[in-house]
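User: Teach me something about this protein's shape.
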Amino acid sequence: MKVVVVGATGLVGRKMIQVLEERNFPLTGLLAAASPKSVGKNILFNRSEIEVISIKKAVKEKPDIALFSAGGDVSKIWAPEFAKAGTLVIDNSSAWRMDSKVPLVVPEINGKIIKSSDNIIANPNCSTIQMVMALAPLHRKFAIDRIVVSTYQSVSGSGVKGINQLMNERAGKTGPMAYPHPIDLNTLAHAGDFEENGYTTEEMKLVNETRKILGNNDLAISATAVRVPVTGGHSESVNVTFKKSFVLDEVRYLLNEMPGVTVLDDPDKNLYPMPVFAHEKDVVFVGRVRKDDSVKNGLNLWIVSDNLRKGAATNAVQIAEYVIKHQLINRRK
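Assistant: First, the predicted structure itself:
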């Protein structure tokens, strides 16, 4: 089982390599591919150094699985090339997520939609993954009618440039700007690019991807995405109304039974999810579970997760593990 990480020198690419190592992924060889400026650099994996190669060279190696985190433009060009070579592509960009022929997968929720004929599988947006992890078991039981979500997204969601801007500002240094305004001691209601409808790309990802994963294109969703001065970990305030009535004990039970979700909710002890709890963990934390008494069948949730792990790298690796476990990879060579 030969695996290539495309975009291996970026934040998510490095995290993919770390997760592959931590989870003892069953590979016989790891390739690291990146842009020309990174070719020749070394990446550490299992205490051995791996030299970064070009994407073109990686295609010729015909790996079994390609984990992509190199941006949408790169993915649109190179994912089909890997697929032609018989490689299964698991892509972390937005390039393929809304393609009707490409499955958008969170394994705990909809891994069964993967077919043996799929050549490209899309990894959802980080904010989408953590929200649907909490909402999917509730949707199955109570049927969601509407979702209103506000995100509090860390600067690592903007890559190294976002982290550097925050750290430079805290140190009183000048440097390249990831955002149009200062981020330290500030919040920006501007995550992604603005679209013609007034919403940002990050907000529309939450709308469109959630509908696709939950299998309801008519689901009412309203999103506001905010960038906050936190280095890692995304938080979300989620207000959801259901078509069916519920009791809070059952909500907590369903959340606790969902693989990959942990309820952290004890106000008397000041226990609730925070980015510092989620750091370097693959769990989606849910707290502040309470009824919204202003509407019928309303519920409020506070959802926090490490955006580089379950929000990106870990979910991609879990998809790869799923296709191996269910023997969806053997037919490619």
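Now, about its shape. The first strand starts at residue 2 and ends at 6. The domain at 2-124+312-332 is CATH 3.40.50.720 (Rossmann fold). If you'd like, I can walk through any region in more detail.
User: That's plenty for now, thanks!
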